[in-house]
Amino acid sequence: MRLRPYIHSKDYNDIHNWITDERTHALWCANSLPYPMTEKKLQEVLEKDAADYGGCAYVATADDGALLGFFILSIDVINNSGFLKFVIVNNEFRGKGYGAQMIKLIQKYAFEIAGVSSIHINAFDVNTSARKCYARNGFVEESFTENALVFHDESWGRYHMVVSKINGEV
Fold first, then answer.
1. Per-residue pLDDT tens listing for the chain (170 residues)
2. What is the dihedral of CA 53, 134, 163, 126, to 10 degrees?
3. Which of 59, 95, 141, 144 holds its CA 20 to 30 A away from the CA of 126?
4. What residues contact residue 66 under an 8 Å CB cut-off, 6+ apart?
5. What are phi and psi of 121, to 5 degrees?
């Protein structure tokens, strides 16, 4: 697996196709994008995140170049920390260990190349597979916010999780 910068003209259609329903969309972006997602709206969100938080979008690829995942990593230079968001794995590869492999590679990049001392992420309580994946990769639950997002008739809590370079083996 490799990481490379997200290339809108090359990658958007694949990522758009991974989000097959409104619930998956809400879990992925916390409704920060309208559903269904459009190219223009995603580009606007990526540009705003880059301007406001220094976020850079990346994709994870197989060695043959096939897209496996997508994420944004923001670096807070004042606090020397990273914030991981919009994490998604190609639905054809979910449940097969690719998400865990991608998280390990992100940690390696963030700790060794970007030089951060910690990485933060939020995960909804209903997204148990994501939370378990993060926990298996050293993330610990730091706080919990009840009713962080309402999705139709559901109310989702949000865990804030963190891994530090000290406890995050890369």
1. 999 999 999 999 999 999 999 999 999 999 999 999 999 999 999 999 999 999 999 999 999 999 999 999 999 999 999 999 999 999 999 889 999 999 999 999 999 999 999 999 999 999 999 999 999 999 999 999 999 999 999 999 999 999 999 755 55
2. 70
3. 59
4. none
5. -155, 150
Q: Encoding tokens for residue 161?
A: 């999780």
| Count of CB atoms situated within 10 Å of the CB of 148 | 16
What is the distance between the alpha carbons of residues 69 and 94, in angstroms, rounded to a whole number? 10
